[in-house]
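Worked example

This section walks through a single chain of length 488. The input is the sequence exactly as stored; nothing has been trimmed or padded.
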Amino acid sequence: MSVRDRLPLRLDVDAPVPSAAALGRVHVLAVGGAGMSAVARLLLDAGLTVSGSDAKDGPVLEELCTRGATIDVGHAAEHVEGVDTVVVSSAIRDDNPELVAARAAGVRVLHRSQGLVAAMGEQRRVAVAGANGKTTTSSMLTSALLHLGARPSFALGGELAEQGTNAALGDGPDFVAEADESDGSFLVYHPDVAVITNVQPDHLDFYGDYATVQEAYAEFARTVRPGGLVVTCADDEGSARLAARLRAGEGGEVAPAGTSRVRVVTYGFGEDADVRLGEPVLEGRGGRATLTVDGATHELRVRVPGRHNLLNAAAAFAAATLGCGHDADAVLAGLAAFGGTRRRFEVRGEVDGVTVVDDYAHNPGKVTAVVATASEIARPGRLLVIFQPHLYSRTSDFAQEFAAGLAPADDITLLEIYGAREDPVPGVTSEIVAAPLRAAGRAVQVLAPQEAVAHVVAEARPGDLVMTVGAGDVTALTGQIVTGLTRR
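Given that input, the structure is written out below as tokens.
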């Protein structure tokens, strides 16, 4: 089945998107989420009248109010009275009273991705996609462009630590967008530069199988504008396979590199990568490697940990220099200054020799990378992980892979599954992740949140690293852990 056949009926990826100026008064549903708050911030920057609603209150809603948005907690039909455009995500159910009322009144309804396109205007579009690494890669790219004075616009899945926001309109030539593949909506962007960090099985509740996932990324590459650039990771099997397919011009998709259609550039540690990384030197919470492109060798430095983050930085470098034409040395300086993204290996406190870190990892690839990196950093101390699985479908599809990714930790605590948009599924609990870990002799327990906090506070010793991992509300436990360690 084609990915277009799976798109929700509310999303026509081929429909023309109005300019921001034509949207009128805009109402954003679930405005507290990362993607939706980014759209709201951009439209506020564009001078539009913006309202929004969310099921629960939080600091994002408060911040949007201070910027002039009208925000309500809870969903009700009267919230969309008098609005001209309603922006929704795929997670909004069809029976949402605000969506029902908007449709009944004939109000324009845009998908989140279309709202983002409306804000892009005529800037050069750089869209970063992939199962893993897209938030960090797009954040690195944005930070580098800001550092060199290019004044980009950006919409990210996480908050830049130094800017304190995940979205802003700039007056420079570039617009950097994290392109969400989870619902196929990344087909809307039609970028000038597309970065594909990896092509791996995920979101199978939407795609059904890995073959359709791969076809979706090929379709995304086909949306790149003529004369544009596709940047893919040579070290990832799925991404490398896509690059080969594009270069071969299979089915008339993308002509070979060097033609007027689209150029394909790969990056990675392998000898065949166009942007090639040398042997990495990992130094605590940072790292460095040589970077060779077009016969010139540079030194790439980052202040975030792990081999995978050197790959992310190489992708950002390729997009900034080969795709957008910025100076290589200036981009490298910007990458070296990158201060990180909220919830991406974010250090939340250090108490009595114990470091507490929070990370958003929620699929097997992300969990595997962050746990492996953290276990190395923790040595000779121990790594204690609290992991909250995200979505019943994902946990069911990848229970064995999650167990394998968590296995390097010295102590593993699982919370129950954070269902988000999904209803519970009989028989699908965190125990299906715990079972293979127990069979392998790993120390694992499934606990309620407060029990998990008490467990790691009691177990952690000086030199240990405690990490909360997941896309749900597990992040709220970090403050409690720091408080508990302080009181101890």
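What to look for: The first strand starts at residue 26 and ends at 29.
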